[in-house]
Amino acid sequence: MDLTSYAELAVLLVNSPDRLTGLEGLRALLEDGGHPRQASRLDRDDLAALRELREELVAVFEAAAEGDEREVVDRLNALLRRHPVHPQISDHDGEAWHMHLTEGGRFSDQYIVGAVMGLAAIVTDLGADRLGLCQASPCRRAYLDTSSNRSRRYCSERCASRANVAAYRARKKTGKEKTGL
């Protein structure tokens, strides 16, 4: 069972604070994230639960960005205790039998369990340093580094390009100052 897609739910939530201001924004977020079926079932309790989870996940990514592996693990363990996993075999939408982490409960319960379990799997399989915050100033969006060489430092190609251009301009300016040009 590949839990990376579940971990991506956590990244989606962390990177979308502006979409958690109301139910319509949350519905749009879920539709954009590939969960249109669930978007129609949302209510205010789901919105409140996902806002709370977002704050907790931001703290997980901040701890990872600071290199505090113990803090990452402690925070994830606290979330796992509060939101226990209930695996279930499913064959919905004509798909073959596959595992889901939870089927019952509110939508937010399912989202929370998936996001937290996905991050826990990334941390235990690949390491806490695979969670990060974009290093392009002032971005600070979350990302998962699933590269083979642990090289990801930016949330997107756009931020990577922007940071590289800024670094080039800084080097060019420093070079001119050294030569007196």
TrEMBL record:
Residues annotated as domain Zinc finger CGNR: 130-172
Pfam families in UniProt: ABATE (PF07336), zf-CGNR (PF11706)
Protein name: Zinc finger CGNR domain-containing protein
